[in-house]
Amino acid sequence: MINYQDKVIIITGGGSGLGRAAADSIAAQGGKLVLVDMNKESLEESRKAILAHSTDASVEIVEANVTDEEQVKNYVQFTLDTFGKIDGFFNNAGIEGKQNLTEEYGSAEFEKVVSVNLNGVFYGMKRVLKVMKEQGYGSIVNTASVGGIRGVGNQSGYAASKHGVVGLTRNSAIEYGQYGVSINAIAPGAIMTPMVEGSLKQMAGDDWEAAGKEFVSVNPMKRFGKPEEVGNLVAFLLSDAAKFINASVIPIDGGQSYKY
């Protein structure tokens, strides 16, 4: 059984989507949470939703931009000041960016997406790994994507950044396994989150729901994944039950990435 009693977990991108789903799963198992997001209102909504399911949960929130290393340092220090340790880190904050052919993809847009999806992951790992190395234990789960293990048309910035997350995950896992720290990545496919809904709207406009049905028709499971399904996977990977899983990139996409 997974037990999060007295475990302290940081979750970036905790204001919605996969971050909120993972937080809900971990809180239900007794974990203490520090949720990080740029949007304070969404953080408050996450805390309210979690406490509605887990009335005894401990949920702290920190408004922060993961692309600012000083703000990353601050959310890590806040966690230490509040709880004295960091058992797990769901390094999840990310954006999709605009869709376009590579030749037409704006340089500023590329840099923005990479700044959030890759630099933000690096800054978080840099600060949290120092703490976990000194502790002699800890678990990190980074959010990559199926776009990080194969190409995704019209999304140069997103695919490049998520491939970078995969490389950073595996490299750091090799470095820090000896200190009792496990580092893995998840590679979600079509999970019905606000980000995926936004992607469909970029592609199809008002016909996005029909486009979504067509998109999942080629999935072996013929449906979108649910955020809670990803949240449960993250909760497992951050738990003591998964300590010997290290340097893995785990697709959660209904088998779609293996079909091509």
From TrEMBL:
Top-level taxonomic group: Bacteria
Gene3D superfamilies xrefs: NAD(P)-binding Rossmann-like Domain
GO terms of molecular function: oxidoreductase activity
GO BP terms: bile acid metabolic process
Database matches in InterPro entries: NAD(P)-bd_dom_sf, SDR_fam
Keywords in alphabetical order: Oxidoreductase
Family listed: Belongs to the short-chain dehydrogenases/reductases (SDR) family.
Protein name as it appears in the record: Oxidoreductase
